[in-house]
Amino acid sequence: DAKTTQPNSMESNEEEPVHLPCNHSTISGTDYIHWYRQLPSQGPEYVIHGLTSNVNNRMASLAIAEDRKSSTLILHRATLRDAAVYYCILRGNSNSGYALNFGKGTSLLVTP
Amino acid sequence: NAGVTQTPKFRVLKTGQSMTLLCAQDMNHEYMYWYRQDPGMGLRLIHYSVGEGTTAKGEVPDGYNVSRLKKQNFLLGLESAAPSQTSVYFCASSYSGGLVGDTQYFGPGTRLTVL
Description:
The structure holds 2 protein chains of 2 kinds. By secondary structure, chain A is mainly β.
């Protein structure tokens, strides 16, 4: 299965943009890049996903490198409520099965 | 829409006791999943279901059983609880499963302690 690598933790100031990186150098051509986050004491929630083009939704933006070996989740204005563990997950033919492979993710700390 | 709900939120068991965790979803999803999350770790799939009346094993199925008698409900049973089953249990559901665009919706979790 293709694997992802994320920093263990990151810190941001409130109301500033946050760029959360994810490396996936062995990604296959049919793998989608998904992001989930888990707020403290809650279940994970879907954030965004994409294949090749950059994607935007109300929560965040996803920037995908041209060679697709890395991607970046962008929170445009971090709030205290965005403090969570963010997981970058590959889904596709190279990652068979029904489970989401969460890994350890990046713990984002947002300070006032 | 309540989304995915789990009952109970907390439970303490003694070794050897049994219990059932209930998951319910009101999104008419075909696929449902049970995960466990241990401290400092990601989620691991216990069992899943691809439709009413069907269940299958995930990554860590030992010590657990499941049933999906109704489309909206997915039950996780522990027949003889062990301290190693102390964990937070999350239920999830999705419209389609194992597909690239599939989004899983998670419940709030059940915190289980086995003494």
